[in-house]
Amino acid sequence: MSKFYINGNRRLKGSVNISSAKNAVLPILVSTILTDSVSTINGSPMLEDVFVLCEVLRSLSAEVNIDRDNNKIDINTKNLKYEGIDNDLVRKMRASFLVIGAMVARFGKAKISLPGGCKIGSRPIDLHLKGLKALGATIKEEHGYVEVVAEQLEGNTVYLDFPSVGATENLMMAATLAKGDTFIENAAKEPEIVDLANFLNKMGAKIQGAGSGKICITGVKRLEGVSYTPIFDRIEAGTFIIAAPITKSKITIEGVDEEHLKSVIVKLREMGVKIDVFGNKIVVDGDVELKPTDIMTMPHPGFPTDMQSQMMTLLSITPGRSSVTETIFENRFMQVAELRRMGANINVNGRIATIEGVKELTGAEVVAPDLRAGAGLVLAGLCAKGETIVDHIYHIDRGYVTIEDKLNALGAEITRI
């Protein structure tokens, strides 16, 4: 099992290019199920989650060609068949569950085991199933499987009790081939939702309102394969933005959109970090006196839960008292015990973590409990005195393309063993 060895307390400098967003690419890959032709995803991040979903598509008899040298994936779904999806693949990654809406739309039925993924909370699928039921599907749950059947999905109004990204994506895909109009109320507003809608519309779908709380989908009879380049990864970008103040460095982040990072930028400026935006470049000067702040994770456009652990690492070395309130997932403070091993002063009461900033963190051997917590621990290692060893980095590899290479190019000293 691989580990990162990090020699900390080093200043960084230079620029970094941000990869395409894993959370945009995954639903786009799934939506190719809706057509019987060839689609090309350009600039795809070469990540384990992407490879797993490609295996899911192959298990349905899709022809998938991954060009690692050019970061391109070609998917031919002409001969797609309705088949059961391998349980091991579904358990590896929660995004596998997104296939259920597209499968029902194309084949009239789908059967899949309950999903896996990072153990950061329950993340129930009830909103997905409630929405599909509103579109006329029959739902059966037994023996750890979900079976959805609908000879023809019918447009309807679906109100989501929570603006779930996954449920919004699943219902958008299902509704593209449904009969009539579908309205998703209280829909998720994340940039990845807009990107999926843009991809589907390029295929011939009729979707309006993506990025707002109400999305309207007018069903069409057929979609065509297209070539498409997904948006940048705002969470990777946010992680590198925070790397600047954590190491008292100046870093340029390239290939980004300020609007997708607004909540993170506002909070960092509140803490005293100097951030300037020049088109698709963000220059971050983190050599400043940091001020404490309070963070509350919220659905987009609020502060993203996927940036919570990285921000907590920064707050750990920020003088004064700060707090982090996690409202999205009930089990997303798993990095706290590891940060304490490095000298952080953090107390947790339910969903609220109170952080008393310390002068410095010290290197220790820690374990990445999940993807984003792992990124937070890498950041901790960058600023810590001495050597930090981060184990279980396969979690980190699920969401970051060779993070050690990008950080080393900025002057960090990270070795993968």
Automatic annotation (TrEMBL):
Reaction equation(s) it catalyzes: phosphoenolpyruvate + UDP-N-acetyl-alpha-D-glucosamine = UDP-N-acetyl-3-O-(1-carboxyvinyl)-alpha-D-glucosamine + phosphate
Entry keyword annotation includes Cell wall biogenesis/degradation: yes
Gene3D superfamilies: Enolpyruvate transferase domain
InterPro entries assigned: Enolpyruvate_Tfrase_dom (IPR001986), Enolpyruvate_Tfrase_sf (IPR036968), MurA_subfamily (IPR050068), RNA3'P_cycl/enolpyr_Trfase_a/b (IPR013792), UDP_GlcNAc_COvinyl_MurA (IPR005750)
Any one GO MF annotation of this record: UDP-N-acetylglucosamine 1-carboxyvinyltransferase activity
Keyword Nucleus: no
GO cellular component: cytoplasm
Compartment(s) of residence: Cytoplasm
Enzyme class: transferase
Gene Ontology annotations of biological process type: cell division; cell wall organization; peptidoglycan biosynthetic process; regulation of cell shape; UDP-N-acetylgalactosamine biosynthetic process
Modified residue annotations for 2-(S-cysteinyl)pyruvic acid O-phosphothioketal: 118
Function: Cell wall formation. Adds enolpyruvyl to UDP-N-acetylglucosamine.
Protein name: UDP-N-acetylglucosamine 1-carboxyvinyltransferase
Source organism per UniProt: Clostridium sulfidigenes
The organism's taxonomic lineage, starting at the top: Bacteria, Bacillati, Bacillota, Clostridia, Eubacteriales
Gene, per the UniProt record: murA
